[in-house]
Batch of 3 targets.
Target 1
Amino acid sequence: MSLKIFLPPLVVALCGLLAGPASGAGPGPDAYEAIVLQSPDFLVHHPDLRFRRLALDARERGRDDEARTQFRNAARYGDKLSQAALADLLWNGQGGPADRALGYAWMDLAAERGTEWLVVQRERYWQAPLADERARGARRPRAVRRVRRPGGLATAGA
């Protein structure tokens, strides 16, 4: 057989091998992304993620009161996961007194984009409280909705 038949597929195969990442060539894209997302230079420009990271660190240390404060800081920047975490802390009375109405209000805000598991959790909260808590929770979202906007003030509810 002629070399002309084998050469093109061989060249294509070799180019494919050379184009792929070398084994041991450093962290993959996911590892690199994680490093960048946790770097101080990145977090200084993303306060929602910075406060969420501080809250998660506080939770790991068993400092629910500090976590509650940091999740509130992140939640005021519109971070939906932090809003849900703050709602959970408030609902369960972790890191401070329980406030189920305010917990519901934060969960309502967290679920406003229709994220399925947040909507489900909001509905669980809605089914649980007493009638007076329900009425209070329905009124609180207006106070909670005043979240930090670029150049704005943070005036969200406790």
Target 2
Amino acid sequence: MVVQINKKHEVKSVANGISRSSSCSSFERDHDFAELPTPNRSQRLSSVQSRSSNGREYSVEYLADLLKEQKQLQVFPGCFLNIERLVNDEIARVRSVLFQCDFSNGDKPKLPGPVGNVSLFTEKVYVPVKDHPDFNFVGRILGPRGMTAKQLEQETGCKIMVRGKGSMRDRKKEEMNRGRRNWEHLEDELHVLIHCEETPNRAKVKLQNAIFKIKNLLVPAPEGSDELKRKQLMELALMNGTYRPTSQRYSPQLVTPVSLFSPVRTTPAPIIVSPSGANPLSPAAPSTPNQVVSSPFWNSVDYNMNLLMNQLNYAAAPLN
């Protein structure tokens, strides 16, 4: 038998003059951050370095190189299976170090021993969108391609979805489905739906932990100091292949244009003298002027003089 416990929460607090609210969305739908506002100068993508638990430093540039190599390996599917696996594991490791969101509320909660039967428990956290109508709560909880929500699910052991009005990206499709079967949640206000399938005593701990993390995640930070948003934008740029490190050695704006001249109107090309008929025992002749290169086996002064005159006539000839 499956027991369902439904609770409703409205999260609303004020700190530093900013109303705080929480929201989330089902990352099963494809969200591409189209609604994220453009970051200002202090939020632009910059080089980030983080240190892993084993003391190794990772950078965004290193992750960008790994993603590039991953695409190159995809050109040869099934040929380098072990290399693909190693690259994918390294990408996951570096990404977890660079873009790991801090949802922690101190030490990880200790789960008690299971008591009772496993059941499905649910919690609702309503999103106060009226206080922040222009804030993109859905994009913040999802992260680029659902990566933030996936991390939140892994840490809490709960399934997180968004339901209610405004939970779908396609507003026309939402209006078409309103009132239909299995779409009853569209009649409710925008809210976070948390599912936990566990024993009652363990589910209580997991749900409380998930609610706490969601509240902390969806606190609108002051403009220009949103570290989570900066990481999400950077990770999205890496996924789309549009990331450009700020510390580039050469800038296109600093490159001085170089004038190109036609080689036809400059010094004529050297003439290579054929060694046919040359005496292989004679020493090499010195180099002649006007870039006339003589054979190293020819030592005739008259012959070199004739070549020199031909070269001068060629240089003085008008160009057609």
Target 3
Amino acid sequence: MNFKRVSRLMITTILAVAVAQGFNPISVQAETVEGTNNVKRVQGLDRFKTSRAIAEEIGFGELENVVITSGFGFADGLSASTLAKKLNAPL
């Protein structure tokens, strides 16, 4: 399969999942689950500020390792997530 075909397939799959979910964010669904009343929303003006707000909310403290990737490509973060998990490091 060539890159364009794989890209189209991925986009189609993502759209199908989004339509099936009804465009409801997972956090909204989590709030409606019985017995769940401790959902806290964290947000930013863009994905970078949201990421920072999440990091500040979690409060990592002192870290031995951090895995850094570009915020512009999905594949970078996806492939680095395995290393981040192995090192128990934030991504």
